[in-house]
Design a protein that fits this description.
This protein has 320 residues and is of the alpha+beta class. It has two domains: 1-204, Jelly Rolls (Sandwich); 263-319, Orthogonal Bundle (Arc Repressor Mutant, subunit A), CATH 1.10.10.60. It contains twelve helices and eleven strands. The chain has helices at 3-13, 24-34, 135-146, 163-173, 184-202, 214-226, 234-241, 245-256, 260-278, 286-292, 298-309, 313-319, and strands spanning 15-21, 38-42, 50-57, 60-66, 71-75, 82-90, 93-97, 100-104, 110-112, 118-122, 127-134. The strands form two sheets. The protein has a six-stranded antiparallel sheet with strand order 1-3-4-11-6-9. Strands 2-5-10-7-8 form a five-stranded antiparallel sheet, covered by helices on one side. Strand 3 (50-57) and strand 4 (60-66) form a beta hairpin. The protein starts with a helix and ends with a helix. 39% of the residues are buried. The mean pLDDT is 87.
Length: 320
């Protein structure tokens, strides 16, 4: 899974905010509504051919934006209320955030926070997937992960994110396929999970925490099993246990030699196998079982199921 694949999927399901507009005021207003307030300056008397696509999911939104012209984007307010993670799909741009400067292009993402001034100098071929994350949710999740409050000030240039983050974003793109409205409660939970997963991959590691009593690990396991069908934020698990997230992770590694996420996936797969084995073909579907077990991306569910059991979910249901 890549940024280009997520962006391509978004084009099929997004709520179009703006399509192929050449009006600078219309472009600026639409991008302000979807992303953040800004000033838009056209370079070399360029003519816009802008396309903006937008899909909200709780505290985040996914956006695909191409101006189709050389432009400069600059702030319109002193402080922003969001973080923008930019995954370039084509072309190139130069981003400035405070004193940091980065050349961004496919394979070289960037993040712009809410704390300092920014400037984007964008070429006419620049096509980008933008993850917009609500500032309040980001700072709250970072506080739960680190155990202390403070700005989430990351370097402008980002390493290529781990594949699981793209899979999570692809799950967000799949939300509209769940039915009318895309199940807002699932969108909210997935949005929170995207923020948490992004921060866990980006925030610096802390020293190994103190030993977590096994009783807290058992409490975490009970919580995970009780919420098996839902997108689960691991910070919620830690809060339920009265421990930091790093401590809960260390407890799982020590007691079970797996991460909480790995243990949860195994439990979900085991429940899915039981439900498929007991299901009646024609009355039970693989899609229903996957959703009931907390898998919202059918392809990912099938791949994990086959890796664990050596057969496909449909073959288990068909054997019944």
């Amino acid at each position: 899974m890549t940024a280009a694949q997520v962006a391509a999927g978004l084009s099929g399901v997004s709520r179009h905010v703006l399509a192929a507009s050449g009006d600078p005021d219309e472009v600026r207003d639409a991008c302000t509504e979807a992303l953040r307030p800004h000033r838009l300056v056209l370079q070399r008397q360029a003519r816009l051919a802008t396309r903006l696509e937008h899909l909200p999911a709780g505290p985040i939104s996914l956006n695909r934006l191409r101006y189709g012209a050389e432009v400069t984007v600059a702030p319109a307010v002193p402080e922003e209320d969001n973080f923008l993670v930019i995954f370039p799909v084509a072309g190139s741009a130069r981003f400035t955030y405070g004193r940091d400067i980065a050349d961004v292009s496919p394979g070289h993402p960037a993040i712009v926070g809410p704390y300092r001034e920014f400037r984007f100098d964008i070429d006419s071929a620049f096509d980008q997937l933008i993850l917009r994350m609500d500032r309040r949710w980001v700072e709250s999740a970072a506080r739960r992960i680190r155990g202390a409050a403070g700005p989430v000030d990351l370097s402008l240039s980002l390493p290529e994110p781990p594949p699981f983050l793209y899979r999570l974003l692809d799950s967000v793109v799949s939300l509209p396929t769940l039915g009318p409205g895309g199940r807002p409660e699932v969108g909210q939970q997935l949005g929170e999970l995207v923020i948490e997963s992004f921060l866990l991959a980006q925030l610096p590691s802390e020293p190994e925490p103190a030993r977590v009593p096994s009783v807290q690990v058992r409490r975490a396991m009970e919580y995970l099993l009780a919420h098996l069908a839902e997108p689960i934020a691991m910070t919620d698990v830690a809060a339920h246990c009265g421990a930091s997230l790093r401590s809960v992770q260390a407890g799982f590694r020590r007691d079970l030699d797996v991460t909480p996420g790995q243990w949860l996936r195994e439990q979900r797969l085991d429940r899915a196998h039981r439900l498929l084995s007991a299901g009646e073909p024609g009355q039970t579907t693989v899609t229903e079982v996957a959703a009931e077990c907390g898998f919202f991306h059918l392809g990912e569910f099938a791949a994990h199921f086959r890796a664990r059991f050596g057969v496909t979910p449909s073959s288990v249901l068909g054997a019944r």
